[in-house]
Amino acid sequence: MCHRCLIIRHIKHFKNIRSCCFSQWLIVYKDLNGIFVFSGQFEHSNSINKQCYRRHLQHWVCHYNKNAVFLSRRIRLISVHSRSVFFFKTTFRTFVHSLSEDELFLTPLSPLSALHRHWETPACSTDVQPPGDSTAFDFSVLSYNILSQELLQDNAYLYRHCHPAVLPWSHRLPNLLAEIRQHDADILCLQEVQEDHYQDQIQPALQALGYQCEYKKRTGRKPDGCAVIFKSSRLSLLSSTPVEFFRPGDALLDRDNVGLVVLLRPNDAAARSDPSARVCVANTHLLYNPRRGDIKLAQLAILLAEIGRLSRLPDGSSGPVVLCGDFNSTPRSPLYSFLTTGRLDYRGLQIGSVSGQENSPRGQRLLTSPLWSHSLGIDSQCLYVKKSAVSPCGSLKLQSSYQHHLPPDGRPEITTCHSHTAMTVDYILYTPEFIAPPSPPCGRGLSLLGRLSLVGQPELEEVNGLPNRHHSSDHLPLLARFRLRR
User: Taking every annotated instance into account, which residue ranges of this chain make up the domain Endonuclease/exonuclease/phosphatase (predicted)?
Assistant: First the structure.
């Protein structure tokens, strides 16, 4: 149906509008100057009057620029005070045309319910630690892209579906810190941590909660970076290694993404007497560009080589690894396969299909081998060439903490959602513990005890996508709990 056919009387005819109880709606109406479409939400059982619209008009005009174009669906006809009014339920996209002083403005959003997420225990997990068992150390890891405020402002077109009140940093910071406090994880891996916000607000707040913070800003002029943060009462820092993917003079590695790899030791007595009792925790945010899968693979190769080097134990075996981050790649992508199998035959692969971000990839160039320069000293198993001889187990065998589909119908889990997309790109990966002990020197792994459930796209539509009043990033936090056996 053409949006020009959807007409509501001029604002002067609406002295009072009583609302129904629903989440996010769009109203289409026509005044003397043409068709206008507006986003907002009615408060249940409240009257909205003309004066209220005009009072907020100035703020509305400042938030939306005049030529923003979005898309909506789900037309529904509702009768309001015996007048026919067309409403659209939004799926994160709306039409917003030129604004005028006669524009209808809706009141600020009434509180929406928060997403319902519950704790999941894998079928093979044993969450009960035997009495007196000092050989096991349980810990939790949270991975969260918290959305840099500068990046939000630079990409405002992604957040047109949001009410203006939920976007300022003054609203988002308390929500983000409250989420972190609520989940109370032992280790935090945060992405898009803006440097000034980290130094002035985030680091002091988390230090007050008993966390120690490690941070790596992106290279160049980028405002944000990655942080690995851990409870100093439970873990001690053995080393912290920043990883820069930018390599001067390398045409492939010309982007400013980074990673951070830390070695942590449990603070219990058993760990202090065992030099191999440690966990390698890595955090990264790979390049976004869906058409540059070649860059993503090269960035990942550098990170995995560093993890392989740093996780090696004194006896030559591999220690347990947790790898977190925003990989800008979907669970069915070749890059995800690369992460979870340690191998990828990328020769002849379309460059735009590597990350799986686009259904019809626009990057058509085919990848050739070798992909990255020999000067990196990294082989096809993502190991440093000079060190590979002491690693007979080959590259890392990582496993995701999440299943990437929801029971009972297999709907895809969603970790990020804004006006242009809803998909999984965030992961907590780990080296799993084998049921039968592996032969040395293949090392030891971790047991997954549980995870915080994710949601699907319908659940996100009910809360008007991300960010919203309760969830202040365009990503959801991932949370998993592990057991380290020694």
Answer: 142-437
* Cβ-contact 192, 146 below 8 angstroms: yes
- Cα dihedral 47, 53, 55, 60, rounded to 10, equals 130
Q: Which residue has the tokens 């308390």?
A: 174
29-75 pLDDT tens trace: 333 333 333 444 333 333 334 344 333 333 333 343 333 323 233 32
Could you give the 3-state DSSP secondary structure of residue 251? coil
SS3 240: strand
Residues of the chain with CATH 3.60.10.10: 119-485
CA end-to-end span of the chain: 64
Report the C-alpha dihedral over residues 352, 353, 357, 363, rounded to 10 degrees.
20
User: Which class is 119-485 in CATH?
Assistant: alpha beta
Mean pLDDT of 190-211: 98
Residue 188 structure tokens:
């935090």
* Sheet hosting strand 83-89, strand order edge to edge: 34-40, 25-31, 83-89, 75-80
* pLDDT, position 442: 60
Q: What is the pTM of this model?
A: 0.78
